[in-house]
Structure formats: structure tokens, C-alpha cells
# Entry
Amino acid sequence: MNEKKKRLMTDEKVPPAGLVRMIMGFRNFLEKLRRNLVPPPIALLEMITGYWYTQAIYVAAKLGIADQLKNGPKNIDELAKATGAHAPSLYRLMRALASVNIFAEDKNGHFKLTPMAKALQSEVPDSMRAMAIMNGDDWYWQPWGELLHSVKTGNSAFKKTHKMGFFEYTEQNSEAGAVFNEAMTAFTAQSAVEVNAAYKFSGVNTLVDVGGGQGILIAGILKKHPHMRGINFDLPSVIEGAKALIEAQGLSSRCHLIGGDFFESAPSGGDAYILKNVIHDWDDERATKILKNCHSVMPQNGKLLLVELVIPEGNKPFFGKFLDLDMMVMGGARERTESEYRKLFAAAGFKLTRIISMTSPESVIESIRI
# Structure
């Protein structure tokens, strides 16, 4: 396993979820206050032009600007030479990003990293570089231009644009698949840290990660809980890529790798099953099928854990409300409210017992088999 993945697996500290919610609530209050003070047309203009930010961040990520600055500030000529960019145009990009605290220009005309810019580096925990590149690349960007199609028909704009489904496309296009996998790897590594901080796994001896990808989540959990054994379950082609990570973490004797299709079955032998960002990829019918396959192999009162965003009711600002649009555009999938999760669980033979907030917008949704 490369150095990047090793760093992603480090056991980092996370602040208490309650403190983060309080800070986020205060930030949302200040933002709402600011927008109320700004004339409505100007506030709306800021939102309308939001894609300017996406593309500016994408270009900086694609050029690897943050990596160029990791050893210290550089002037625009140095950055242009290192990245093959046109210096005057690159300066205009950097000036714009510095105005929103992504990079900073000093009085000598040198640019340096800020905390947000550090997250655009490629070799750091919590890296957002691949996520920025994915969201700005044509293959991901263009379907959002067909949002109207999804709203009017309920169908995937991605499929209209690319004539195939999202996962089929990333399998057939290696560059898109690589950046998608890198973005999800970084995201899942941090989720492992947060899940460990939020959920105690009391009484869990064998944990099955359904749709566990390359094993980053279950590896992080097993490292935190030495008594536990694990099963990582995903498509055979994906599981093949998980071997190196599990071996590098010294978990080969504690984590069994099984290839299969969660629409067909789930592996038996666990007293708890975890699915991270799996159910939101599918409509209710297919999501229920996945959950029923887990139900069929679980013991009575066995625990089912979902790591997902739970959309709050009402007008409360929440990242998941716009991620829900992204799921609609990309694959006809969806984020869900608590009541929608309760209905989904009930249809598959589970009872929702509690929802545990984390520092990220995600939550651990616990249910039991009934």
C-alpha cells in the first residue's frame, strides 16, 4: 500500500459532534444574517454564480498548485513555470481564490497555503483534491447541466448525457474511475475515524462491511477494536484490490475478504452489518433488496448500521439537501429523512433504534433485525 493510503489510515482525533454542531449552527446563523442584510438580488447573484468557485477550485486542484506550495510560498512566475500555466492568467485565478481564503498572497506577491488550501494537497489526510477534480471534470460536470431533465422526468441526467449509468461509466473509463475511487478513498478514511469516535461497537464480535470497497472503513474499525473480526464484502473485482490494504494493516488473520453481489446475497457470520454510503446510491426498491439480503443472514436482534446523511425536516440548511440533487442527477438515487429510513427499514424487517450524529454531515443509523 502506498504512503498516501497509510496516512489516510492514521487514527486521528475528531472534535465532539455536539461542539461541531454548535459551531455549524452559529455559522449558519451568521450566514443567514449576512444574506438578510445583503439586498436579495445580490445574495441571489452569489448563488447563481456558484459554479465559478467550483471551476476555479478544480483548475487549482488539476494543476496541483497546493502541492507546489507545500514547502513554502512561491511567486506567480514560479508557479506558472512548475504547472505549465500562463502566468498572468494564473495570477488572476490565484487572486480570486485567495479572496475566499483558498491560498493567500503576501505583500511581496508570493502565494502560500491556507488551511483550506492544504486540503487540496494530494498527500494529506482529508484531501479534497480528487473530489475537486471529479466535480470539475467534464464527465461529472456536464450532467448537472441536465438537472432540468431529472426534475421533469425523475430520470438520471447522467444517463441522458453519457448513455449509460454512473457505475458503468466509471468502470469503462479508467481516468474517471481512478479519480472517483481516490475521492471516495479519502472520504471513507475520514469516516472510519468519525465512526470510531461516534459508535462504541459494544458486543460486536464480527462486523460485516457490505459494499466495503477496498476495505478502508473496516480496517479502521478493526484497528480500533482488537477483539473484533471482520468481513469485507464487495464485487470480486473490488475485493481483489482490497487485499493489499488489509495485508498492509496486518489484518489478514482478522478480516476475511468475500466477493459477491449485494443484490444477490450477503455473507453470513456477522452479528453486526455496516453499509457506508451504499443505500443512498439506490432507489427504495433496490435499497430494500440489499437490506433484505442482509436480514436473511443476520441473527435475531443483530445490528444493522448505515453511515449516511439524514436530511432534517423544514428549512434548516444542510449539505445533504443539495447532495440529494447530485444523487438524482447522477443515478436516480436519493438521500433520505429519518421517517424515510424508518419506512425503508420496516420494509426490510428492521427497526430503527437510534441515530448518532458525527462531526461530518453523516450519521450512524442503528437498527436491529426483527
Notes: The mean pLDDT is 92. The longest helix spans residues 174-198.
